[in-house]
């Protein structure tokens, strides 16, 4: 896995700063993700994870720094950059009257891609949705099932960067495991993944690298292959303890 800067990064943030009034939500954040690499952004509430995703998506403008998605400068070409991104929000909203296949084909079309039912079935399978649910109305779906359809919608876009915001929050272990399979399948196809998460145990399973964010600062980055799941948890707690004890997001020099 190549995460050095060779000009082929799927995502690159350089010195990104975002303030909300007096509050420094992000301070000089720099990170790079290579094609096919899964990067977990860990951090407590208010660390700046969602702000990071919103800046990458172009929903917010940075106060300083530069963001590139597949080589496209988000500040110069917001729509061009967004076309390279698939985004799975924490809560996936589906049309309750449509079944999983219909939802997927409908949202894929909205995203600019026409897919047929057999392609839809394959994407739903990759995203971990069991066959018997493919033709069921989404109105009766659990959160985990909606997340899987959401992941299939994201995969349908054929994007180079997949952004996930708390993808496993509120999911049971089996649903979270299925979703992790889907993320790994995307990674194997060369899609880079940035996953904002609190789910430390899943990180070892899914991510190649992790970064720990606190109060808008990236405290450390590590390869998950170098750490066991319990070492990841220990590192997380140690980094947060060692960090400036100022409240998360409070103004700092
Ligand atoms: N629109 C906004 N206006 C003012 N402050 C904001 C806004 N959005 C985020 N913040 C602040 O910026 C900081 C970072 O918030 P952010 O939502 O990015 O954190 P997070 O790591 O995603 O947290 P969580 O895990 O709770 O989702 C917090 O202090 C938050 O209060």
UniProtKB/TrEMBL annotation:
Q: Where is the signal peptide?
A: none
Keyword Transferase appears in the UniProt entry: no
Q: Which GO terms describe its molecular function?
A: ATP binding; ATP hydrolysis activity
InterPro entries attached to this UniProt entry: AAA+_ATPase (IPR003593), ABC_transporter-like_ATP-bd (IPR003439), ABC_transporter-like_CS (IPR017871), ABC_Transporter_VariousFunc (IPR051782), P-loop_NTPase (IPR027417)
Matching SMART domains: AAA
Domain of life the protein comes from: Bacteria
Xref: Gene3D superfamilies: P-loop containing nucleotide triphosphate hydrolases (3.40.50.300)
One Pfam match, by short name? ABC_tran
Keywords from the UniProt entry:
ATP-binding, Nucleotide-binding
**The UniProt record lists the keyword Nucleotide-binding:** yes
What is the protein's given name?
Answer: ABC transporter, ATP-binding protein
